[in-house]
Amino acid sequence: MFFKIQSTDPHSQARTGIVSTAHGIIQTPIFMPVGTNGAVKGVYMDQLEDPIQAQIILGNTYHLYLRPGLDVISNAGGLHKFNTWNGPILTDSGGFQVYSLSNSRKINEQGVTFKSFIDGSMHTFTPENVVDTQRTIGADIIMAFDECTPYPCDKEYASKSMDMTHRWLVRCKNQFENTDSKYGHEQFLFPIVQGSTYRDLRQQSAEFIASQNLVGNAIGGLSVGEPAEEMYEMTSLVCSILPKEKPRYLMGVGTPANILECIALGIDMFDCVMPTRNARNGWLFTSEGVVNLRNERWKFDNTPIDQNLVGYINNRYSKAYIKHLLRADEMLGMMVASVHNLQFYLWLVKEARQKIEEGIFTSWKNEMVVKLTRKL
After folding, report:
1. Active-site residue, from 9, 146, 268, 271
2. What are phi and psi of 201, to 5 degrees?
3. Which of 104, 107, 254, 266 could cross-link to 258 by cystine, CB 3.0-4.6 Å?
4. Which structural domains are found in the chain, ordered by start?
5. How many C-beta neighbours within 10 Å does residue 67 have?
6. Cα separations in angstroms, 297 against 284, 320, 372
7. Treating both helix axes as pointing N-terminal to C-terminal, what angle do 155-177 and 127-137 enclose, rounded to 10 degrees?
8. Rounded-to-integer distance, Cα 187 and Cα 140, Å
């Protein structure tokens, strides 16, 4: 069985489960560190294992296709062997990059033609070759090709884009079913719900995605600038339609508070660049709130980053020291901050799993959201 629900929260839609892949078991709810280029910025692979305790990481099809290229990855025997990560990997399809490269791409029914950000060369992604590309990368979970619409988005455009995403999904599914993994391990295809922030479009899309009967489902096109309440409304609606017996992945979300609120709505899987990106800018997430190390108040603070977390990062380095490193542009500062933030995110979802199993998730979540949104 690909996914098995183990426990549910009596006061929300939160649940715990396990996702089984050839490269290991994933306990849900789970957060996936983002390794855009096959590496999580500033973090060693052994640090992802401990102290971070990541169970799955994410790679980006668009970036890996352009650099190092499929020939290099194939020659190494797939991304697992290339980057030495032995756990599960998920690759996104490049749909978000299509959204973000609005000035250097053209979209039509066939696919997307875009200009490389590296050398300006022209390339085309289609539903078929995106599946083939992810087959070559060798991820355990691969995503269907979609168009991520911006926010705000005209309803007519959102509707046409959603319909095209659905047609692309059919082509992705056909290509997936007619090809095999290149490295001898099973791969799984997830479709993506779109529809911007329009309830009727989201409902149509969720119903279509559910009808395709794939092993898991994703929700895209959120966390692109819309208010958090709209994101929660769309997530709740979609989760009420997608089958409960399959994992639900909310793409690109988000802050620690966002994650807890969306776990309560029934989401199982998350990814976001926020932990590492914010770390490089001096923002640390802790169980008591957000620490901005750019503030002078931390200059003489020799206390650990977060006394509720264990591990050498929290026990060894003080806020004052990391502030000094960041101010001096020492790479170690960005590395230590990145490891801490990722460890915190993985600690948070582990705590959420425990509270769901104990039946007290909702009350704990409500208390934690207040803490997590404080600026210390």
Report:
1. 271
2. -70, -45
3. 254
4. 3-279 (3.20.20.105), 282-372 (no CATH)
5. 13
6. 14, 9, 19
7. 50
8. 5
Tens-level pLDDT at each residue, the chain (376 residues): 699 999 999 999 999 999 999 999 999 999 999 999 999 999 999 999 999 999 999 999 999 999 999 999 999 999 999 999 999 999 999 878 777 777 788 999 999 999 999 999 999 999 999 999 999 999 999 999 999 999 999 999 999 999 999 999 999 999 999 999 999 999 999 999 999 999 999 999 999 999 999 999 999 999 999 999 999 999 999 999 999 999 999 999 999 999 999 999 999 999 999 999 999 999 999 999 999 999 999 999 999 999 888 877 888 899 999 999 999 999 999 999 999 999 999 999 999 999 999 999 999 999 999 999 999 9
Q: Is residue 289 classed as helix, strand or coil in its secondary structure?
A: strand
* Six token digits for residue 375: 């600026």
Tell me the three state secondary structure of residue 307: coil
Q: Of 9, 92, 268, 306, which is the active-site residue?
A: 92
CA angle 293, 298, 303 (to 5 degrees): 110
Separation of alpha carbons 60 and 363, rounded Å: 36
Contact 365, 355 (CB under 8 A): yes
**Single-letter residue type at 308:** N
92 a catalytic residue: yes
> Quick one: which of 20, 21, 26, 31 has its CA closest to 352?
31
DSSP class per residue in 195-244: -TT-HHHHHHHHHHHHHT--S-EEE-S-SSSS-HHHHHHHHHHHHHHS-T
**Catalytic site includes residue 200:** no
